[in-house]
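// run 5 | inverse folding | seed 20
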């Protein structure tokens, strides 16, 4: 729902926690001068739908490590091999806002949950991640999703972990099932 006052709008269309932001593109789209409150779900939905029709860039790979916690885990080592092999790839790494992680030459960054982030999600040919995708993100048919997960070799994940999850919500498992349906390749550390 939107509550309109003269040139101001307050947007809240889900029960997820929100945050205060000013978003020029949303303002231009709805011709409002100021957004006082916009909720996470709405922002994701707006941005993702906005870029969903853009063409996929065949040599672009979007990399995620623990929702933006820098250069590490399995994605780091896969990307290092790509960099060593000098393949013509546009490597985009997701980072948390306001962080200053160090990355090798040949990697550019995008802040998670920014409008540019949703554009990168929509136009990347390959997703490489060690965590689930956000709730409103759906893989397009032309995209390839590599899930490296995280943890040690004998870790139980998703359906295998239901009995040992100790207090995990039904939403946790529903999100896991949704994400799992999008995965094209799941890396297993077990031998």
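// decoded
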């Amino acid at each position: 729902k939107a509550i309109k006052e003269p040139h101001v709008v307050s947007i809240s269309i889900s029960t997820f926690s929100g945050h205060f932001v000013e978003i020029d593109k949303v303002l231009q789209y709805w011709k409002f001068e100021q957004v006082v409150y916009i909720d996470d779900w709405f922002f994701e939905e707006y941005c993702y739908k906005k870029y969903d029709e853009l063409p996929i860039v065949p040599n672009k790979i979007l990399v995620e490590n623990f929702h933006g916690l820098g250069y590490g885990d399995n994605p780091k080592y896969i990307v290092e091999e790509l960099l060593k092999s000098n393949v013509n790839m546009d490597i985009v790494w997701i980072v948390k806002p306001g962080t200053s992680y160090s990355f090798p030459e040949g990697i550019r960054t995008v802040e998670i949950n920014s409008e540019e982030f949703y554009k990168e999600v929509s136009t990347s040919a390959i997703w490489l991640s060690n965590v689930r995708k956000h709730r409103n993100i759906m893989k397009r048919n032309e995209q390839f999703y590599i899930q490296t997960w995280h943890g040690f070799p004998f870790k139980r994940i998703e359906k295998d972990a239901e009995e040992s999850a100790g207090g995990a919500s039904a939403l946790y498992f529903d999100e896991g099932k949704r994400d799992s349906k999008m995965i094209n390749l799941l890396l297993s550390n077990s031998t």
